[in-house]
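Exercise 7.
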Amino acid sequence: MAGQGTTAPQSAPAAPAVGELTPKTIKMAPKLAYRNLFHDRLSLIVTLVGIVFSLILVAVQCGLYIGSEQKIATVIDKTPADLWVVPFGTKSFDDPSLLTGREKYTVLSTPGVESVQEMIVSFASWRKPGGGKKAFILVGLDTARSGVEPWNLIDGSAAELKTPNSLAVDKSYLKDLGIDGIGAYAEVNQQRVKVTALTGAIRSFTTLPFGFTNIDTARKLIGASPEQATYQLVTLAPGANIEEVRAALAERMPDNEVLTHAEFRDRSLHYWMFNTAAGAALIAGAALGVIVGVVIVAQTLYSSTKDHLNEFATLRALGASASYIHAVILIQAVLSAVIGYIIGFTLTMLLINATKNSTLTIVMTPRLAIGLFLLTLGMCIFAAISAIFKVTRIDPAGVFNR
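Solution. The predicted structure, written as tokens, is:
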């Protein structure tokens, strides 16, 4: 009626544009990705095999690299010292030569020094009880004067190493040394020794066994004087400035080098990893493992996506947007990465556990585990993006010409 107010009819909610991503379609993307992934079991198995193989390859190569780093620095890491006095030109920990023998007293008389320990490191010849020889690395520790003791002892005690001509060797090298265990006798540099302790998983990068003994026995076995040592391990007094003490020691001992703990560790790692063929092979192997892994995963996921081009063309013909299809492909890649990582990581840990008692050291750290997951996820997403370019060029009308 005239004069009466009229209320404008409320307009109906606008329908979503064709291909527009809505909450409903977003929720459907994971479901479609899941069904698409598990529909073709054979294709899924091939994809997972590629991911698992690449993951194990990368994990083993990177684990070997980390394990090698730990083996190079194993004794250094277990030896507390603020400064190391080493013979001039020492390339690494197991590049031994003897100091003259006067360094200990020079170090002790330097202001800021609280104490000093001595260490002998030398290559020696092990004569097996049944015949034959084996080179090994003899490490003499200052155990009688509260110095560092062998760690990871699995049989015997460090106290027994204080007796003359006693040695501790690693269990993994018993076969190489031709002995059965504690109580065995052998000859080191033509002098009789007795194995009184066994360590576990103390291995060298050079694959030569370590033999630990007290420093007096080590001097006797290599023919060094009672004052000589390979390294002087310096502990600073509380509040002493490390650089000032280091400069004072370097000035008083110009024929030797004075290195911080970190510097000596880094020097040893750099020498073996970058100046030797063994280190170069490890680095090349780790890099090659990553490259091969990326190629394998990219190829398998790309092929899997290509096998479903007709399905994606049908979705495009029904009005699905490109962004929706891209979401489906990326979710498929993430699902593949997660499943492949779980399987691959489990198999890798089983492999590491199976080789833990061998001289082959594969190490898995939390940082490496996280890195492997991110790498696997990145490889799968990279492969998915490669496939997306192929899917984007699909002609939706082509589905009606089949």
